[in-house]
Amino acid sequence: MAGGDDLKLLGTWASPFAIRVKFALALKGLTYEYAEEDLASKSELLLSSNPVHKKIPVLIHNGMPVCESNVIVQYVDEAFAGPSILAADPYERAIARFWAAYVDDKLLASWATILFRGKTEEEKSEGKKALLAALETLEEALAKSSDGKGFFGGDNVGLVDMALGSQLSWLKAVEVMSGEKFIASDKIPLLAAWMARFSELDAAKVALPDVDKVVEFAKMRQARMAAAAARAPSN
Question: Which parts of the sequence belong to the GST C-terminal domain (predicted)?
Answer without folding.
Answer: 89-222
